[in-house]
Amino acid sequence: MQTLTALCCDVFVGFGFEYDAQTLRMVAVEVAEQTADLVRSIRDEAVAQGPVETKSTETDVVTTGDRAAERLIRDRLATLRPGVPVLGEEEGGEAATDGLRWVVDPIDGTVNYLYGFPWYGVSIAAQVDGESVAGAVVEPASGRVWSAARGHGAELDGRPLRISGADRVEMALIGTGFSYSVERRRTQAAAVARLLGEIRDIRRSGAASLDLCAVAAGWLDGYYEHGLQRWDWAAGALIATEAGARLRLPGTGAGDGLGDDAILCTAPGITEEFTAALKRSGAAGA
């Protein structure tokens, strides 16, 4: 695979193009907005066409809307930035993380999409050597556009984002999600029941990318989940960190007791307290 040569200030040369984080952000926004228009316009048809396919379990669904959305994303990215590899939820891609690649989730929150619950999004991120440098999450139902570029901050519809000033875990509003595995969901639910005694409340909305964006906006004080894939967090995690959040990604916290597949994103003022609360509740390894 061709790798990129770093010049300066997040500018890279490779695949016959010069890249910078802001330009990649604009590409991500453009393609995500176009895809969100498609996702919204074909929802009724996509749901009516059934039966809906499943993946890891009967509750892990994929619609024709997911597949059509990823095809559009790949086609547009191939036109705008030819030759750059794409890793996507529905069609896969190379596992190697070196160099520049796009990481896409055509519909994050497919169950919500299926039911008409409006919390789902199109997520597109550009990563260099496995780290997100630009990304966008667009909500088809509302039209809201979340985006970020490394070193340039995060925005919602062009307005700068900033995380909450939470500094007491007992007053923190926390987002999370559950596994598609029935047995693991039971374990996670039991841990959440214990965690509820240590925080303000829990929200479980069903789209990781948007939950991370909610931390960026201060709508949540923190978020944690186990078992996410790279496309679930690639754009949302960058948006949250560029808004000032503390982030712990899957595979990066060896020895911290949270579990290798955990993601944790919080306002800095509650990170240590909330991590301790997760461990006490048993949610850290659930």
Automatic annotation (TrEMBL):
Please provide the Gene Ontology terms (biological process) for this protein: inositol metabolic process; phosphatidylinositol phosphate biosynthetic process; signal transduction
Q: What's the superkingdom here? A: Bacteria
Where do the annotations place Mg(2+) binding?
89, 105, 107-108, 232
The chemistry this enzyme catalyses reads:
a myo-inositol phosphate + H2O = myo-inositol + phosphate
CDD domains named in the record: IMPase (cd01639)
What InterPro entries does its record include?
IMPase, Inositol_monoP_metal-BS, Inositol_monophosphatase-like, Inositol_monophosphatase_CS
- List the PROSITE patterns: IMP_1, IMP_2
Q: State the EC number(s).
A: 3.1.3.25
Pfam family, any one: Inositol_P
PANTHER family, per database record: INOSITOL MONOPHOSPHATASE, INOSITOL-1-MONOPHOSPHATASE-RELATED
Q: To which protein family does this belong?
A: Belongs to the inositol monophosphatase superfamily.
Name of protein: Inositol-1-monophosphatase
